[in-house]
Amino acid sequence: MNSPNSEFWNKKKVLITGHTGFKGSWLKVWLEDLGADLLGLSFNESKNNFNRPYASNNIMNIDSDLNSNSWQKTVTDFRPEIVFHLAAQSLVLEGYKNPIETFKTNVGGTINLLSLISELDSVKTSLIVTTDKVYLDRDNHAYKREDSLIGGTDPYSASKSAVELIVSSLLKAKNSPLSTVRSGNVIGGGDWSYNRLIPEIVNHWHKSETLELRSPNGVRPWLHVLEPIRGYLLFAEYLHRGGLVIPAMNFAPSFSNHVPVNQIAQKAFSYLPSRSGFKIMNSSDYSFVETEVLKLDSDLANKTINWRQLWNWEMTLEKTLDWYTNYLQGADPLELIKSDLSSYLHDLAHEKTS
Ligand SMILES: NC(=O)c1ccc[n+]([C@@H]2O[C@H](COP(=O)([O-])OP(=O)(O)OC[C@H]3O[C@@H](n4cnc5c(N)ncnc54)[C@H](O)[C@@H]3O)[C@@H](O)[C@H]2O)c1
């Protein structure tokens, strides 16, 4: 399996949007480790009041709304060569509550970014992060490939589906150097989003409360956050070196690592130190609709950039829960990310495959 090449990334000028978010924080740390020259565009203080003090240390930082016009000059002057666009309203349930805001950020904000970077001759490669939830008819148990039909139905998924259509039409119209990347349920330390499974488990465990599972039988493509990040880095490197243009790429676990929510929850329950009052049960009242089965095929990533999942779902979950328990005991979050990255790189070098 391939690892991102530090000779390639060293001193590359890279713009990351969403660098103060969950995935953006890990991408930022890995790119710093590779020696890239970074500019980040995000809200510094998340609207949801997440606590990510480690997210913006050694990076030139723009604290701005994607939809505003205040950041264009800084980005233009920076002259990015590679762009990773992660900034988004990233939650399905928030999309149901605030659909218009979700479209404004995810569609309007993306168009605002694309309209600038399409004018910048410095930009040679851009990866636009969408989601596995862009696929139509997700519940039919078939593995979704990159050429499966697009058509997310809830507001979040619809907004990301719109981005897919925008990017593929820009590729046709202007031959723009753009591709989308799609992955599923990404877990790892430092995700504080409400209504995502791992933060919910950790919060309920920490407060010794009962957690009700929304969608216990839902099967999801769980991946440690370092897995899609490695995929983004390898794919960007491949495109930047002149590889065949590929409009979209999935990053997903192997078939046996697509497991139901309740299997993750039960394993977490037995792995975390016991606490009286902490219980996990199935919810009887759930009014939002979420896809029951979501399976993703990443054969294309395997064949093109030699990307496969490194850590199986159990290892992924243990690493994730260790991150949170160490953090809650006072460990420095940035050091925890660096430590997970170093053990991931070690395992990658030794190909301890799942
Ligand atoms: N975490 C997952 O499991 C997962 C799965 C599939 C796809 N994704 C996608 O990956 C990307 C990153 O996800 P995440 O989990 O890190 O999200 P997150 O919610 O943790 O972070 C979102 C980031 O976007 C920034 N942002 C939000 N609205 C903005 C705006 N209007 N202007 C500027 N910045 C804004 C925030 O400041 C933050 O840095 C998103 O595009 C998301 O849709 C995430």
What do you see in this structure?
It is a single chain. The chain is α/β, with parallel strands linked by helices. It has a single domain (9-283, 293-349), classed as Rossmann fold. It has 12 helices and 13 strands. It has helices at residues 6-9, 22-34, 72-78, 92-97, 99-117, 155-174, 197-206, 226-240, 261-271, 299-305, 313-328, 333-350, and strands at 13-17, 37-42, 60-63, 82-85, 125-129, 178-183, 186-187, 210-213, 219-221, 223-224, 248-251, 258-260, 279-282. Helix 6 links the parallel strand 5 and strand 6 (178-183). Helix 5 (99-117) packs parallel to helix 6, helix 9 (261-271) crosses helix 11 (313-328) and helix 11 (313-328) runs antiparallel to helix 12. The radius of gyration is 19 Å and the shape is globular. Bound molecules: nicotinamide-adenine-dinucleotide (NAD).
CATH class categorisation: Alpha Beta
What is the H/E order?
HEHEEHEHHEHEEHEEEHEEHEHHH
Low-confidence stretches: 47-51
Spatial extent as radius of gyration: 19 Å
Classify the helix fraction into a percent range. Answer: 40-55%
Number of separate strands: 13
- List ligands, each type once: nicotinamide-adenine-dinucleotide
